[in-house]
Amino acid sequence: MAKDLLTILLILSVGLGLVYVSGCQTDGFGKAPVRRIAVEDYADKMKAGWIGQMAGVGWGGPTEFHYKGEIIPEDKMPAWKPELINQFRQDDIYVEMTFLRTLELYGMDVPIRQAGIDFANSGYPLWHANNAGRTLLRRGIAPPDSGHPEFNKHADDIDYQIEADYAGLIAPGMPNVAIELGETFGRLMNYGDGLYGGQFVGGMYAEAFFEKDIEKIIHAGLKCIPQGSQYAECIRDVLAWYKQYPNDWQKTWQLINEKYHLNTDYRRFSCSGPQGEFNIDAKINGAYIVMGLLYGKGDPDQTIIISTRCGQDSDCNPSNSGGILFTTIGFKNLPEKFTSALDPEGKFSHTPYNFPMLVEVSKKLVRQSVVRAGGRVETDAEGREVFVIPIREPQPGRLEQCWEAGPIANSRFTQAEMAKITAIAGKDISEAVSKFAPGWKVKSCGFDMDPGLKEQEMGKSNVLVTHPLDRRTGCQLSREVKLPAGKNSTLKLTVGHHPDGDWDLIVAANGKEITRKSVDKKAAPDGWMQTEVDLSGFAGKKVKLELINQPTGWKNEAGYWADISLISR
Q1: How many CB atoms lie within 10 A of CB 80?
Q2: Which architecture does CATH list for 424-568?
Q3: What is the pTM of this model?
């Protein structure tokens, strides 16, 4: 009788299109299991996720990098004030909105090169991997090479981890979408553990829409990254130490500090050096996210406070942990102190979004994510829209680590792509150049040694000072000219070097190097030298001339220009 009843129930369930298997729904007998979430419930949790980020970064903001390799004392933890929720000028929030805007404009299948162009054109100040990646993009080094450790010495830093929240917030129950978004946007600036940190965070957010158990959420995030990575090892360690010391987060902090801060084997690509007090490596800061989630035990205040008191990047880490926890709670269930003072008209810096617009673009993109993942939107018996999302195992990428990186892709932007990158890399001295040498343009000028136009410099008047952008990239002066036919044209230059420095003068025509000369004590013992470049071979032709202040040993590499003249006879 029991067997017959079970058969009848199964037939009825199949007829209704709903079979429950291990707590999951399927679309019919034998089909893949799915998860369902009402669109309005998704929106409520997504809003809470954004609020959690804003709360975490606002609360922890005053402590950022004030405590390195030490726990922030309890009495140094700032007090929460409701107005702190209005974090519209925080790079920990608005950078990821560049990625949202790219997705809004080009869709979920946006090519990584377009993502790179958009990031290159962003106008906000950046640091570490973000800054290095954007500088490389502006130089023409296209992704994924802009995040490769061969070029980007910050590739293991925290940057994509900071800004990966968006990926999970538009991918509820879809870890592979969060992973793929990391492959598109995370590789603009990161590699290896630096990339995995963001994919781990995105995976936790994706699970937080359906799960409240924090350990299960962390394990879901772990499934999104290679298990052989040091990042995954770090998170497994934190979970194990939490089991050993469930009521003593400071003991676990000490164990983290000993292994992931003081042990140089786990700082093999640390941008501050393997023993630097400052530690912006993704692993240890990822550990502090997990610390807040585990030891906060579901309490919003304690989650943010513990992630903050762990130190180092102590506003970014509580922003991630706060966002993930708040997603599990939902906006309508949040304590009023986190929502009462929210300014709906406040605009996030360098973005087109205020908070209501941010919510709307997330709601738009999640529909694309659902369809892209093989899901759909249904209407339930109450007339509500429901996302039906297939359950699929995460498919992390292959193992890569910055200290034993794989080959570069030799990826460079085309001339047409470079024309779309209008932002200037480095210091803008274009006004000084136009005064000194009308018609000439400048790019890739670094900030060192105070570049610009000087009234007096090394005994000469009206001197233009340039500086290479970095150790590989020279500052470039360029001009397109039509050289007269039937005449010999000559480029005359008077250039100088710092008394304790030297550099290479490169002259190129139509992208081909035609002259390279050392500007040093041997060539210019009194600091200055004159040189002429014969351009007669270009008579009657249009030519793009480039003058490059190329670094040699990265010591006082400034180029001094007293005269740039083009003579035709």
Answers
A1: 18
A2: Sandwich (2.60)
A3: 0.78
